[in-house]
Amino acid sequence: MIETLFALMVIGFVVGFVFSMPTAGPISILVVSNTLHDQRKRAMFIAIGGAIVDFIYIFIMVFGFTRLLTSHQWIISYILLIGAIFIFIQAVKLLRYHVKISNGNGSDSVVDTALIKKIRHHHGLYTGFFVNLLNPTIIFGWMISSLVILSFAASNGVNVGGMEYVFLNNVEEIKDQAVFKNSEPENLVEQMEKKKHEPQPHTFHQVINSLDYALSVAFGTVVWFYLLTGLLKRHKDKIPEQFFNYLVHGLAVFLFLISGYLLFDSLKLFHII
């Protein structure tokens, strides 16, 4: 049991850290843009808010949440639609930002009172929370990445408590859904089905294992963003201010594309297109 918990802790941290590195996701874009605006604390609140949702999604999808989404596909349609609108609004706000490098002490000329700073920082927590909450495609991203890494670890003799088959069953539930745009899930399922299935962990062990794994993934994402924001804050004064304006506005364009992608998926599930 202890061996399994330790293995899941290490694997979860690695998954959270590594799969948070791509900068094209909405959370990454908001974290980077806020850090460039000398608001590292708010950026970290955004990262923590997103990590909370990662933890919730990873934990509950082990217990049949994917079956709920599969049998009630209209839920995905509405969540995607709301998410597209929410991310579009964030993109508009980001596009209107103009980076102004301060003296490096973390001050913000617009936010000049401790109370308003506190509200802005906590607003970042809510922003990160709802950006991820309204982007259900991250469920499938974490599911596939978890299946790949846990299966790889198990095939190399690491005791992961049968959790790889828990994720396999969830992937099998939703592999035919519209959110999958390539054959990777099907190929993964075919490869796993060729292997001998081990029994899934007992319910109590499954709860403990999934809590351990989900917490470790969330912690890994927060650690990555902490290091990323620290790196950006430390070196941003060495780069021309205009470069950051171009970068932030470019990231805003990425958010518009993500919003359009979610809207397209939503309309497709509504059978409008």
UniProtKB/TrEMBL annotation:
<feature type="transmembrane region" description="Helical">
    <location>
        <begin position="244"/>
        <end position="264"/>
    </location>
</feature>
<dbReference type="Pfam" id="PF01810">
    <property type="entry name" value="LysE"/>
</dbReference>
<keyword id="KW-0472">Membrane</keyword>
<feature type="transmembrane region" description="Helical">
    <location>
        <begin position="6"/>
        <end position="32"/>
    </location>
</feature>
<keyword id="KW-1133">Transmembrane helix</keyword>
<feature type="transmembrane region" description="Helical">
    <location>
        <begin position="125"/>
        <end position="154"/>
    </location>
</feature>
<keyword id="KW-1003">Cell membrane</keyword>
<feature type="transmembrane region" description="Helical">
    <location>
        <begin position="75"/>
        <end position="95"/>
    </location>
</feature>
<feature type="transmembrane region" description="Helical">
    <location>
        <begin position="213"/>
        <end position="232"/>
    </location>
</feature>
<keyword id="KW-0812">Transmembrane</keyword>
<dbReference type="InterPro" id="IPR001123">
    <property type="entry name" value="LeuE-type"/>
</dbReference>
<dbReference type="GO" id="GO:0005886">
    <property type="term" value="C:plasma membrane"/>
</dbReference>
<dbReference type="GO" id="GO:0015171">
    <property type="term" value="F:amino acid transmembrane transporter activity"/>
</dbReference>
<feature type="transmembrane region" description="Helical">
    <location>
        <begin position="44"/>
        <end position="69"/>
    </location>
</feature>
<protein>
    <submittedName>
        <fullName>LysE type translocator</fullName>
    </submittedName>
</protein>
